[in-house]
Amino acid sequence: MKYDDYIWDLGGTLLDNYETSAQAFERTLKKFGISVSHQEIYDALRKSTDYAVDKFAGSVPGFLASYKEEERLSLEKPVLFDGASQVLAAIKAAGGKNFMISHRNNHVLDILKAAGIDKFFTEVVTSDNGFPRKPDPKSILYLVDKYEMTRPVMIGDRKLDIEAGKNASVPTIFFSSDQEDTDASYNVKNLKEILSL
C-alpha cells in the first residue's frame, strides 16, 4: 500500500446512509405536512444535508432538530458499503492507521460501534471537536500534525472531501459507483480497490 494513514469520511463513504437518511428526511417532512418525492430528497441529500433542508424545509422551525433525531434512530442499525470492514481491517493489519473526520457530533462513535468498525480507528474527529466544516483543511491538518503523518490520504464521496484534502495538500480518493471527480488523485467504484493503490 502506498499510504500509511487513511483519513475517512463516514456517510456515503463507509456508511451507506443516503437511503437511510432519505427515508428519515421523508418521514420528517410528512410530520410537518410536506410532501416531496423520495428521489428528489435522495438527490438533494447527496449534495448535502444543509442543501436539502434549505430546499425543502428552510423556513420550517424545528425541522432540522426533528430530522436529526429521526435519522439518529434510523442509524442505530447502520449499513456499511461492501468491503468497508475488510478494507479497514486490512489497513490496520498491514500496520497502517485509520482516522475519521465527520460533520456529525459524537453520536458517530455509537454508529461506528453499532457497525462493528470502531476498533479499526485510531482517532475520530467530530463536530464536537470544534473544527470548521470541510472543505476547510483544519481538521485534516490537526491529524497530520498530531500523528506526524508522512503518507496520508483523504477518502470521501463528495467534492468537499476532495477539496478538503487538496486544501491540506493531502492526496485524495473519490469513492462513487456512478461518477468521478477529476480533481481527486484517484477514483474508485468499490472500496476494495483502495488496497491496490
Written account of the structure:
- The protein has 197 residues and is α/β, with parallel strands linked by helices.
- The protein has eight helices and six strands; from the N terminus they run E-H-H-H-H-H-E-H-E-H-E-H-E-E.
- The protein has a six-stranded parallel sheet with strand order 3-2-1-4-5-6, with helices on both faces.
- Helix 8 links the parallel strand 4 (152-156) and strand 5 (172-175).
- The mean pLDDT is 95.
In short:
By secondary structure, the protein is of the alpha/beta class.
Task: Kindly report the average pLDDT value.
Answer: 95
Count of individual beta strands: 6
Radius of gyration: 17 Å
Largest sheet: 6 strands, parallel
Spatial shape:
globular
Strand order of the largest sheet: 3-2-1-4-5-6
Helix amount? 40-55%
For the termini, the CA-CA separation is 6 Å
Strand content: 5-15%
Low-confidence stretches: none
Report the order of strands and helices.
EHHHHHEHEHEHEE
**Number of helical segments with 4 or more residues:** 8
Task: Decide which structural class fits the backbone.
Answer: alpha/beta
Question: Any key phrases for this structure?
Answer:
single chain, 6 strands, about 40% helix, alpha/beta, about 15% strand, six-stranded parallel sheet, about 200 residues
Chart the SSEs and their pairings.
Elements: E1 5-8, H1 18-31, H2 38-47, H3 49-57, H4 63-74, H5 84-93, E2 97-101, H6 107-115, E3 121-125, H7 138-146, E4 152-156, H8 159-167, E5 172-175, E6 186-188
Parallel strand pairs: 1-2, 1-4, 2-3, 4-5, 5-6
